[in-house]
Write a structure and sequence with these properties.
By secondary structure, the protein is an alpha/beta fold. It is 41% helix and 16% strand. The chain contains nine helices and twelve strands. The strands form four sheets. It has a six-stranded parallel sheet, sandwiched between helices. Helix 1 links the parallel strand 1 and strand 2. The chain is globular and about 55 Å long. The structure holds NADP nicotinamide-adenine-dinucleotide phosphate (NAP). The site of NADP nicotinamide-adenine-dinucleotide phosphate has 27 residues, from helix 1 and strand 4.
Length: 301
Amino acid sequence: MKVLILGTSGQVGTELMRAAWPQGTELVGLARPDVDMARPETVEAAVAAHAPGLVVNATAYTAVDKAESDRETAFAVNRDGPARLAASCAACGIPLIHISTDYVFDGTKAAPYAEDDPVAPLGVYGASKEAGEAAVRAALPQHVILRTSWVYAAHGANFVKTMLRFGREREEMRVVADQHGAPTADAAIAAAIVTIEERIAAGSGGSVPGSVPWGTYHFTGAGETTWHGFAERIFQRLEAATGRRPRLQAIATADYPTPARRPANSRLDCARIRSAFGIEAPRWEDSLDRVLDELLSPTAS
Ligand SMILES: NC(=O)c1ccc[n+]([C@@H]2O[C@H](COP(=O)([O-])OP(=O)(O)OC[C@H]3O[C@@H](n4cnc5c(N)ncnc54)[C@H](OP(=O)(O)O)[C@@H]3O)[C@@H](O)[C@H]2O)c1
C-alpha cells in the first residue's frame, strides 16, 4: 500500500513518518510548499501525482487563539483544503484518514462525548475543524475521521515542552484546573492510524470487501485529567530529573482569559474505535512518561 501523508512538519505528521508501518508500505510524506491546504490546486495535484492507496491528512491550522482573529486562514486550511482533498480522493477512489479535534464540542456534557453527540464549537478553530469534518463526510464515503485531544510530542510546540521550559525558569506556575480531558501522545495517534491502515489495506485487497467500518471515531490517551493534573505529572518528573520544580497553583479558566473559549469537558469516549478496530489507547500517564524520558534524558538538547 502506498500511503500519502500530508503535514509531515507537524507533531503527528512527524511521528507518522517514523511509525512502524507494515512491511511493504510505501510512505510518501509532503509538507509545505509542496502541499498548501490554503491553495487547493496543490492538494489536487499531489493526490493525482502520487496516486496513493490511502491519504492521511495531518495538516491543520492549530493556533487556537490566533484563529479568532484569522478566521479566513483557519477556514481555508481546516475546511477548504480538506474539502478539496476529499473531493480529489473521491475522484480517484482513494480513502482518507482525516484528523480532527475535541474542540468541535462545547464541553457542557457531563460525561465523555460520543461520536454522534451534537457538535457546537466554541471558537473559530473548532468551527473550522467541524466544517472540515462535514466537508470530508459530504465528499467521500471512504473516510475515517479521527478526533483526538491535547496532542503533544517530544518535538514541535506543545504543552509538555512549554511546561518543561517554564518549569526550569519560574518559581511559580498557575495552570487551569477546571478543563477536563486526556492528553494524547503523537506516537499513540500514529499507532492507531497504522492499525486503521492495515484494516483498509486488507479490505481493499479484496479478501474482505467492504469490511472497513468507515466513519468518525474518537481516540485519546486512556484516563482523564485536567491541565493542572497534566502539569503536576510533568513537574514531578522534572523534579526527579533536575531537583527543581516550580510551585503549581490551580486556577479557574476565568482567571486565565484567552481570545478563544475552550471546552470545560474535552473527554472523548473511545469505545467505538475499540470495538470497530480493536484499538486500545495507552494510559495517558504511560505515554507521557515515555515522552518525558526522551525530553529529560541527559542528552536531550
Ligand atoms: N495539537 C493539539 O493539541 C490537537 C488537539 C486535537 C486535535 N488536533 C488535531 O491533530 C492534527 C495534527 O495536529 P498537530 O498537533 O500535529 O499540529 P501541528 O504540530 O500544529 O502541525 C500542523 C501541521 O499542519 C501544517 N499546516 C498548517 N497550515 C498548512 C497549510 N496551509 N498547508 C499545508 N500544511 C499546513 C503545518 O505545516 P507548517 O509546519 O508548514 O506550518 C504542520 O505540518 C490536526 O488535525 C489537529 O487539528 C491537535
